[in-house]
Specification:
single chain, about 90 residues, mainly beta, five-stranded antiparallel beta sheet, two-stranded antiparallel sheet, 1 helix, 7 strands, about 5% helix, about 45% strand, globular
Length: about 90
């Protein structure tokens, strides 16, 4: 769907069926049918490499219809050193 027809959306990253990080439309960049979701170091450090990552978009169309995408799953890479670089 063209992002210009979305009045609002949330992109939620979860693990073990619980929300870990959610980004709103104002925090993302839209380009045609693509949504670019920036994740900070703090966001990614909340993810557990031992658990499956779940991602879902819930959105409101400009016509007022609320919908959700299917949940997409993937893996999170392991890091050896925890903490935010540059602090």
């Amino acid at each position: 769907m063209e992002t210009e027809y979305l009045s609002e959306f949330w992109v939620t990253f979860g693990q073990r069926d619980k929300e870990v990080v959610t980004k709103t439309k104002d925090q993302c960049t839209c380009d045609g049918t693509k949504v670019i979701v920036p994740l900070t170091q703090e966001d990614t450090l909340l993810l557990d490499h031992k658990a499956l990552l779940q991602v879902q978009v819930r959105y409101l169309t400009s016509a007022g219809s609320a919908k959700a995408t299917r949940i997409v799953t993937g893996k999170v890479g392991q890091i050896l050193k925890e903490g935010v670089i540059g602090e």
